[in-house]
Amino acid sequence: MITRTHLAIVSFVAIFLAASCQKKSDNVTPLIPNEAITTVILTATPASGGAPSVAKWTQKYGADGNPIGAPDTTAAILELKANTTYVGTIAFVDSTQTPPVNITNEIIELGKEHLVFYQPTPTRQPLVIPNTSNSATDSTLAITLTPTDRDNSAAAFPVGIATNIVTGKVSAGRLRIVLRHQPEGKNGTYAPGSSDVDIRYRVNIKQ
Fold first, then answer.
1. Sign of dihedral through CA atoms 85, 86, 87, 92?
2. If you average pLDDT over residues 77-81, what whole number do you get?
3. What is the DSSP secondary structure assignment for residue 112, as one 8-state letter?
4. In the chain, count of helices (H) and strands (E)?
5. Looking at residue 158, what is its pLDDT?
6. Residue 73: which of 40, 101, 34, 120 has the closest Cα?
7. Rounded-to-integer distance, Cα 157 and Cα 7, Å
């Protein structure tokens, strides 16, 4: 015979097990990070019109969310003309998700927490503050990149997704690009926060 006491005990156990299962489910950690940047696409379009030059950097990730091997840089080459002005844009993609997710808009929306740095190399100079013309006077690569976008903070710091690119003489080198995540203390300099991406493209400036 089932008494009220038995029913109360059964109900308590059922509620306890349901709560325990829910708690375990809520505490499961995803295997793949929400923002694994697998692809970075740099595009330079001539300001006067014409076909854009596109450079693409990719990195494979495993099911555990960790990078697999070295990045693929075979397409990470930017071909530009000397003494020319370009409109530059950069895109960040997460291909660990299906379908791949372009997280560039998220970076723009959270512009107060992000900053993209550009630096021609080789150079002895540290990464420069991006709200000034970004060129290295001792670099063999004759290129200047100036961010043209701003975040919505009172100081209106650059974000660096959109840039003005100006080339000089015929030259070759590499362009270092660093995406800094600066959720606290963004002040227009490199120091705050940590790096989400730190990569290099080959750049050829031809006549």
1. negative
2. 98
3. G
4. 2, 11
5. 95
6. 40
7. 64
Question: Tens of pLDDT along 134-148?
Answer: 554 556 899 999 999
**What sign has the CA pseudo-torsion 189, 193, 197, 198?**
positive
| Cα separation, 100 vs 172, whole angstroms | 33
Comparing CA positions, the residue from 175, 180, 167, 177 lying closest to residue 206 is 167
**Distance in angstroms (rounded) separating the CA atoms of residues 116 and 197:** 9
Secondary structure element (H or E) that encloses residue 106, with its range:
helix 104-109
For 10, phi then psi, to 5°, come to: -60, -45
Give per-residue pLDDT as tens, 83-104: 999 999 999 999 998 899 999 9
Contact 120, 143 (CB under 8 A): yes
Q: Which helix (H) or strand (E) holds 157?
A: none
The identity of residue 94, as a single letter, is D
Global confidence as pTM = 0.78
Rounded to an integer, what distance in angstroms lies between the CA atom of residue 23 and that of residue 18? 9
170 within 8 A of 44, measured Cβ to Cβ: no
How many Å apart are CA 163 and CA 177, to the nearest integer? 12
Taking only the tens place, the pLDDT of each residue in 177-201 is 999 999 989 999 999 999 999 999 9
Check the CA dihedral 11-13-17-22 and report its sign.
Answer: positive
CB atoms within 10 A of CB 104: 16
Beta-sheet pairing, 194-206 with 77-81: parallel
